[in-house]
Amino acid sequence: IARHLHTSIDALDYAVTAHGKPYLRHSTLAFNHSHSQDDYALAISDRVVDIGVDIESLNRKIRFDALAQHAFHPDEYACWKALDEDVRYWFKVWTTKEAILKAHGMGIRLDLNTLNTHMHPTSDQGQIVDDRLGIFAYQCFDLGAAMLCVAWRSDIGCGQFILPKIQIFRP
In this structure, is residue 18 part of a structural domain? Predict the structure, then answer.
């Protein structure tokens, strides 16, 4: 972040919202970060606000069905089952939910099964419109060993799908 802002690390003035989302005082730079067992993701943008990111290692040991029953909207769960419980689809839904909630700033403070990502089996991007959260766009990236999703506050419609600049760094 300091490198992007052409300043020193010591000059960065961080604060957190009431729900714990970090932000920079005196800066319009939007940022969010996530880590998994082997990966780190940092999303930054000068163009969009309320950005969120989540990255998950695909080799995590998860009780997929139990967590899907708890966290997936019934439409997402039915699609996952119709896809023969495809692990990559599961991680697209999960990382999208996390990224959207992190972008909003509330974190996981609602019943995840009430948030429908409308995840398509073959598309890696989309929008959600939710009365509680507003409108968010998202883009998923299958990195082979990890799934990454970036989400940001958006307006409705394809013309409003302004993709922030995304750079992925892997060790």
Answer: no
In CATH, what number is assigned to the domain containing residue 42?
3.90.470.20
Does residue 80 belong to any structural domain of this protein?
yes
Tell me: the pLDDT tens digits for 31-50? 998 988 888 888 988 888 89
| Unique residue bearing structure tokens 């714990």 | 20
Count how many domains the chain has.
1
Count how many residues are written for the chain. 171
**Which of 8, 11, 10, 51 has the alpha carbon at shortest distance from 28?**
51
Percent helix, strand, coil in the chain (nearest 5)?
30, 30, 45
Of the pLDDT bands very low, low, confident and very high (cuts 50, 70, 90), residue 107 is low
Asked if the structure places residue 9 within a domain, the reply is: no
Secondary structure string (H, E, C) spanning 29-70: CEEEEEECCCCEEEEEECCCCCEEEEEEECCCCCCHHHHHHH
Give ∠ CA 96-100-103 in degrees, rounded to 5. 140
The owner of tokens 């750079």 is 167
Instruction: Residue 34: name the closest of 132, 124, 146 by CA.
Output: 146
